[in-house]
Fold this sequence. Notes:
alpha/beta; Rossmann fold; 5-stranded parallel β-sheet; 13 strands; 16% strand
Amino acid sequence: MLLRLKTDDIHKWINQSSRKPLLLDGARQVGKTYLIAEVVGKQHFRRVHRLDFRLDSTLADIFAESLDPRKIVELIELRLNSPIDLSQDLIFFDEIGDCQNAVDSLKYFSEELPFAYVCATGSNIGLLRSFPVGSVHYLELFPLCFEEFLQAKGQFKLLEFFLERRNDKTVFDQLWQLLLEYYFVGGMPEAVSHWFDERKKLIERVNRVMQVHRELTVGYRQDFGKYADKLDALNIDAVFSAVPRQLAAYQDNSVQRFKFNEVVKNKQRYQYLQGPIDWLEKSKLVHKCYPIRSRPTVPLQSQIKTNIFKLYLFDVGLLGHLLQIPFQHQVSQSYQYKGYLAENFVQMELAARDSRSTYSWQMARAEIEFIHQGRDGKIIPVEVKSGSRTRARSLRSYIERYDPSRAIILAGRQRDRASGPVEIWPLYDAQFICEL
């Protein structure tokens, strides 16, 4: 069983005396259905009544005549031939984005049956024409983060040391090796499950992970055609293909803004690609990071330009697959391009812990990969280094300009203290930035 950190949030929702329907959003195949039906459902409920709208489109008939939640419950009982005990059972709307009326019904479940356990999942929630704002308890599920990857490994003493941020060399060596494996495997649950199947030889596990990545990529591209018209689907696919290609173009330098003129022929401006980019972002397949080109101040959102951003892929394993980086090159770090993989990893660790927008900093030739607003409102620059070298001219430039009280370099080495406000953290500690 793959343990997910969002389970704790779901437990809190279950234990409320009165609750809104739970809506679990996330890209396809990140484990939403498994988490609700197999983990939470079997542990906490007498029975799970699951309606999968992608599997059976005729389920929409239940919601066609009325959105009265009591009538909907009766029709579900009739359709599934199973009585529902609202005090002990979970009503589960899977892939609810394929039925707009079911989405609309959540508002009425919230108002009229707040004691019921109603949960919905979807991979296209952001594409809906309407959304029950304020009527659902919203959670977002990402591919497994590095901490969850360690849980799946089953070395719980190593996981304990990771969470304690132990700085021993033996601990660092083991965690670093697992980080390089994570670069190859990524966080898609099926890939992770095959990777840690100790009954198989290494070559079998490598091949199985590659097969999972291939199948996932085909599935996402099929979705482009399912949820968009033919022309939009072609442009969405072009952007999806351009993201890894543009990331890889920067070798060990910082990733630059996404370039629109390299995606679709004769479409060189943001306005032509805004729709496809927004589609991919709403489907949780890409993430934006906004560069700030002045002194960073709160609120950071006020300093961005909405048409200038970096684009990262939602899973580092799929990024490596799309670029055809072999397993041995990943774990040996011998290939030419690796800095962008470290950046993409950090982006996803930040997103999994805090779904707010991320930001970077640029000034002339100086670039800081991420800037983080701490809980005290202070801005913390975060430089990302894929290897053990920690020379950071851009960070020195930032410090000379703005004199921050704290600065962090994420690198392939043990935690250490550099000069002035600079702290060196191992790259795999990226998630702990969100605790500052």
